[in-house]
């Protein structure tokens, strides 16, 4: 009984997460509990609200096995630095310089999600409802495929009532300019009744490697505006012209959570593969492979360069609601 009271996930069939794990940071606000796993790439492990009968998970919760495996892809959400999604062949050119990331330990053929998600983050200031996480990358000239730019990143993760707010910040510590992008990669509970609603203008169509081919119309654009079933399409695509708000709803459960984002999180990724239980609606500053975009499409792709000493900072929020 004591465990059930102290750990809202103790009798939860969705996860066997133990919040007494000393490696975790647990935040609490009223009936809402947020679990942060700094050692697993600065990830959020769980975000749920306790009711009289169950825990309502606003993000898909991690399991004890996922924590033991230090697997960010099985967390509730993880940060994306210093770029989002894939880079074709793990290579791109920047200011006449060839950047090769193929040997940085990323096991994917196309460099994926940067590297900060595969590295422990340091815990900074914390309260009962907030925590700051810090990460600094110092390039290793002797390491094959290392990101060759030095930068500092931080996350401020906080509960404001039942809402979750994450503020991402990065500073270019290099002597020269640095290409850059950031985002967060949240997973949501997916059922046969899950609905995603968002205002977008166009979709980046992709090839078999999930790399963009062209920007154009798609039935998912109109479906999202009306409220799209998570099962409607086989999606792993970027959307442009995002209004920086998206709602993930479970109508049969009478609940929904709304994601809102500040600029420059002007792009949204929907990962809703057919015949799988995964669902991601991701706020990002850049589209897939934006560092290889040609000059005509760079602005549309969110291509961004931070000058020496320049800082970028923007917040995301998830606000739950019973309906």
UniProtKB/TrEMBL annotation:
Transmembrane segments: none annotated. This is Aldose 1-epimerase. It comes from Paraburkholderia bengalensis. The lineage of its organism: Bacteria, Pseudomonadati, Pseudomonadota, Betaproteobacteria, Burkholderiales.
